[in-house]
Amino acid sequence: MVAGCGCAACGIGNARLLDFDLSAVEIASRTWAVLGRTDYFDMENGGNIVNVAFIEVPDGVVVIDTGPSKRYGDALRSLIERTVPGKPILRVYNTHHHPDHFLGNQSFDAELIAAPQAVIDNITLEGDGFADNMYRLLGDWMRGTLPQAPTIALDAAKESVGGRDFSLFYLAGHTSSDFVIRDDSTGVLFAGDLAFLYRAPTTPHADMPQWRQSLDTLASIDKALLLPGHGPSDAKDESLTQTGDYLDWLHGTLSDAVGSGLTMNEAMLLPIPARFEGLGVVRTEYERSVVHLYPALEDSLFPVIEVTQ
Amino acid sequence: MLRILVLIVAVMGIANVQARTLPADPLESVMWQYMAERFMPEGEIVFDDKVIVMAPLSAENQFHVPITVDATALDDVQEIIAIADLNPIPLVLSVRPKEALSYVGFRLKLQQTSPIHVGVRTGDGVWHVSGAIVDAAGGGCTAPAAAHGESNWMQTLGETRAYAGRETLSNARMTLRMRHPMDTGLAAGIPAFYMNELVVKDDAGQVVAEIDMYEPVSENPTLTLKPKVGSEETVLHVSTRDTEGNTFDFPLTVPASARL
Questions:
Q1: pLDDT > 90? residue B69
Q2: Over chain A, what is the mean pLDDT?
Q3: Looking at CB atoms within 10 Å, which of A94, A109, B24, B234 has the fewest?
Q4: Quick check: is B219 in a domain?
Q5: CATH number of the domain enclosing B102
Q6: Is residue A307 situated within a structural domain?
Q7: Does some domain include residue B8?
Q8: pTM of the predicted model, to two decimals?
Q9: What ipTM describes this predicted complex?
Q10: Which domain holds residue B93?
Q11: Which residue of A has its CA nearest to B247?
C-alpha cells in the first residue's frame, strides 16, 4: 500500500512530473497575459484555469494575480524572468480573494503584494479554507501552498510603480471586494473576475445587483483592451456584455424557480439558453450557482409566515 | 452426536429462512449491509429505478446538499427514509406521506464524500431503494451552525418563510424554510439541538404528511412537499417541534385552482 497511493498524480509506479507549461501572450506593448484554460479545477489541469498578467514598466515588472498554487507561482515567476530578463518585480496585485487568483503569492516577496484592505481581510478569513479545498481538488499540485495575504492595503485612485501610472478601481459584486487595475500607458484594463469571456461566471460570493453595477462602471472606463479573469483578452467589451447577459438570465431564472417552489435539484435541470452554450463549463457553473444563490432568493422571495410558539 | 448434528442443521435451516438476501449495492457502499440492517431491518429490499433520487455529483456546500426524492411511480408508499452512509449520524429523515404525493425535497449535511441511500417502504413491506454518491469537502456535521456566529439566533428561532402553490388540480407544492441551527451535537461545546418533528394536517385535522428529522438535516430546514388537495382554496396546518420541546405552528394557504 505504501508503494502506490493509486492516484494518477503521485503513485511511485506512475510518477509524473507535475509541471505547468505556462506561456505568455503579449496582448499589448510589453504586456503579457498567461491565459488559463476555461475549465474547472481538476487533476489534469492542476488548477491552471485562471488568467494572470505581467507588465514591463520602465524600472521593473508589475504582476497581476499569482495563480492557484505555489507550484504555479514558481512557474509564473520563472516565466517572467525568462520573458523580461534582469528586471525586478516591483509590485504584485491581487484582484480578489478567490484561490485561483492569490494562492501563488508565496512565490513573490510578500512586501510587494498589494490589494484593497477588504481583499486582504477576505484572504485572511477564508484563505485556509480555500487552500484545504484546493488540496482536495488538486492533490499534489498544491504541495507546499499556504495562503499569503497581501501586506500593502491600497485605497488610492492612482499608483505609480516603476515609472508607470496605474488607475485603481475599487468595485464589488463578484466578491465583496473586486479590485480592477488599468495601465494608464497602454490602456489595458485588468478586470479580474468581474468579467468572464467564453467561460461561465462563478458566483460563490456574488451579489448580483452590485456585480451588474460594476459591469456598467467597467463599460464606462476608458480602455484599449480588457483582460477578463477567465477567457481571452477583449477589445470590444464583449466580456462585459456576455457576463451581464448571463448574470441577468441566471438571476431571472433562479428567481422564477424559487418563486414557483422548485427544489434546488429541480432548478438544476432547467434548460440553459443556446446562446450560453459556448461558455466553458456552463452546466457545472450553473448547478454551483443554484446552491450559491438559492438561499438568499428564498429568504427574499418567500413571504414570512406568522408562527405560533 | 448425530442428534446434535441434526439439531445444528435444523437451527441453521431456520436461520436461513429468516435471513434476507440483501441485494448488492449499485453504489458499492462499504456500509450498505450495516445501513440496511439498521434502518431497513425488516422486509424485502430491492433496488428500484422507480425511486428517483436527485442529488448533485459534487456538494458545492457540504452544509447544504440538496436532495429531492420522487417515488410517485410507486403505489401505496408508507415511508421514505434517507441515509448518508458515511455520516457520523447516518439517518437524515423519515417521511410518511399520508395524504401527500410520495415526494420530498430537503437539504442535508455531509461529513465527507458519501453514498446516499433512499429507502421507500410500500404497504407490502418491501423497501424500494435507490441513491447517489455525492462528493463533498469534509466537516459538514462537525462545524458549528452559522447561527452561532450571530448574537441573536435565539430570537429568530422558528422564523418561517414559506411558499404554497398549486401544481395540479389535485396537488399543491409547498416549500417551508424555518430558522433553526439544527445542531448535531458533534461541534465542540454545542449540544445537539434540532427540529425533530413536523406534521402537516389539512383543515379537517387529518394528517397530510409527517416527517421525523435527525441531526444531518441542514441548518434552517428547507422542505418541499406535495400535499394532495381539492381544487378550492384550502388551509394546511404545519406543526413542528424541536428537541428542546419548542413548538412552532403555522397555517399555510393553498390557492384555489385557476380553473375554478
A1: yes
A2: 94
A3: B24
A4: yes
A5: 2.60.40.2470
A6: no
A7: no
A8: 0.91
A9: 0.92
A10: 21-254
A11: A309
Are residues B160 and A307, on separate chains, in Cβ contact within 8 Å? yes
Give kind and range of the element (H or E) at residue A77. helix A70-83
Closest residue on chain B to A137 (Cα): B137
Cβ contact A305–B105 (<8 Å) = no
Q: What is the CB neighbour count within 10 angstroms for residue A3?
A: 7
CB within 8 Å: A309 and B246: yes
Name the pairing type of β-strands A31-34 and A52-57: antiparallel
What pLDDT score was predicted for residue B6? 52
Domain count, chain A: 1
How confident is the model over A148-177, as a mean pLDDT?
98
What's the mean pLDDT in A133-140?
Answer: 93
Q: What is the reported pLDDT for B20?
A: 81
Chain A's closest residue to B60, CA to CA, is: A288
Mean pLDDT of A221-244: 98
Phi and psi torsions of B2, nearest 5°: -60, -40
**Domain coverage including residue A120:** 25-235
CATH number at residue A113: 3.60.15.10
CB contact under 8 A, A302 and B161: yes
Inform me whether the C-beta atom of residue B249 falls under 8 Å from chain A C-beta atoms: yes
| Interface residue A264 vs chain B (CB under 8 A) | yes
- A257 contact residues in B (CB cutoff 8 A): none
